[in-house]
Design brief:
469 residues; alpha+beta; seven-stranded mixed β-sheet; 10 helices
């Protein structure tokens, strides 16, 4: 049952009123447009309606895709969408100083957008039931709009993207968040999407594949495995944080209780970007060492990391009914864990400055631990990521959040990570060091106002962190 209370109406787009109105949405735990029980019935019906057929095929069976005769790079015949290329990397981050790998190149910028509308004074978010070929369960909950430029300009000749105009030409006073954010820097080369939250008017209604949910409902749904997709989570993290009150000048005194000042955090991140050594060089896909082609996959000789595979997709819910494409298929589930601790009475998270070859600036802040443990099994113990053993040996009573969530389903095949928030105990050997800093929740909110500061795994954990209050 909803726990919301009536409040004086104030425009959500007003900075002064924003934390209050968003807090109303958090307190409304069962929605005013669709109850949570009704949501699961609706989702089951959408999954039945939009069941996809996804089958592995050989590379030479892909329609509209081909291997470049000179480089072997996998490209769409239109020259749009994305390509799979080779990349040589040299870095001083992590246990391996140099390697080569395939990587997805998608230079165009997509739109990830959520529309927000008030019902009886309570903000609701317009969410979409969307099927993706790489999703382990087909349909997951996505933003109102989730589309690459090639999709929304209809290169494929398919149907238009619903609600797109809300985000392509937003009224300035209705923009609650609008920021370019990166995606997985180990698998995408300099990929960014425009993350947007737009206040919608009364004329915007939920279509057949859409529903209005409150933040309180979304917070509860975050604990369900493989339900809220990666694109929805990153947009949710970019919402102004109603708890820290960063839009309210009366909250400014809280800044004095952060362990580090904002300037110190920015200086530390800038320093890591300046001091880390990272170089990348494009390679023809046929010349990537230690990777082996078969008719059905491009895989590392060791069997670790990931493979590039080809799939054929049949769908009744996408812009076109059938297509084929390459997908990146990880070998093993990832772990993304955030250690948290109250310092001076203020909640802080231990962030790591991570180097990933696909980041435009080389370094972004990631979780305390971010890895696929199987990829380190062959290395000595000293090469394991810091704090990984502490995370894997976590105590249940200290684990605040623990859910397996899917990564991007449009480019990755069954990519999943266990997302964890763990309260560090007083006796835990947790130190900042050169790569780590304790960052307050308010500071995380501030960093999310700008591009390229928190990576996509960290943004999911910020969204999860906000569910714990």
């Amino acid at each position: 049952m909803s726990t919301h209370t009536a409040a004086a109406s104030r425009p959500l787009r007003s900075d002064a009123g924003r934390p209050l109105r968003l807090a109303e949405s958090v307190r409304c735990t069962d929605g005013l447009r669709m109850s949570t029980a009704a949501f699961f019935d609706w989702l089951a019906e959408r999954r039945a309606t939009h069941a996809q057929r996804v089958e592995r095929i050989r590379f030479d069976e892909m329609s509209q895709w081909h291997a470049d005769p000179d480089t072997g790079d996998l490209r769409h015949r239109s020259g749009r969408f994305f390509s799979v290329q080779g990349l040589r990397v040299r870095s001083d981050f992590g246990p391996v100083a140099a390697w080569a790998q395939p990587i997805i190149s998608q230079p165009e910028c997509g739109i990830l957008g959520i529309a927000v509308r008030e019902f009886d004074g309570v903000p609701h978010l317009l969410m979409q039931a969307k099927s993706e070929p790489g999703n382990i369960n087909g349909v997951q909950l996505s933003p109102t709009v989730q589309a690459t430029r090639s999709n929304y300009t209809r290169v494929h000749g398919g149907s238009p993207v619903p609600y797109l105009d809300l985000f392509r030409s937003p009224e300035p006073g209705r923009v609650l968040a609008d920021v370019l954010q990166s995606e997985q820097g180990s698998w995408f080369y300099r990929k960014r999407n425009r993350n947007m939250v737009i206040e919608a008017g009364a004329e915007v209604e939920a279509g057949e594949d859409f529903c209005w949910l409150t933040l309180g409902q979304l917070h509860a749904l975050m604990r369900h495995e493989d339900l809220i997709n990666m694109d929805a989570r990153t947009v949710l993290s970019c919402l102004p944080d109603w708890h820290t009150g960063a839009d309210d000048a009366s909250e400014a005194p809280r800044r004095g209780t952060d362990l580090h000042t904002d300037r110190e955090i920015r200086s530390w991140l800038t320093g890591r970007r300046a001091e880390h050594r990272l170089s990348t060089e494009r390679l023809p896909l046929t010349r990537v060492p230690d990777w082996r082609w078969s008719p059905e996959a491009l895989s590392h000789d060791s069997g670790r990391y990931f493979s590039i595979v080809a799939v054929h997709v049949g769908s009744r819910s996408r812009e076109v009914p059938t297509w084929s494409q390459p997908l990146l298929r990880p070998h093993g589930d990832g772990v993304a864990a955030l250690l948290v601790r109250r310092i001076g009475g203020v909640a802080h998270a231990l962030m790591r400055a991570r180097v990933e070859p696909g980041f435009a600036d080389g370094v972004e802040l990631g979780p305390t631990v971010q890895c696929t443990p199987e990829n380190y099994a062959h290395l000595p113990a000293a090469a394991r990521p810091p704090y990984l053993d502490l995370v894997l040996g976590r105590r249940a009573e200290r684990t605040r959040f623990d859910t397996v969530l899917s990564e991007e389903g449009g480019r990755f095949h069954h990519a999943r990570s266990r997302y964890l928030i763990i309260e560090a105990e007083p006796g835990d050997p947790v130190e900042e060091g050169m790569e780590f800093r304790w960052v307050s929740e308010r500071q995380l909110d501030e960093l999310l106002r700008y591009s390229g500061h928190l990576n996509v795994q960290a943004r999911t954990l910020v969204a999860a962190l906000r569910t714990l209050r």
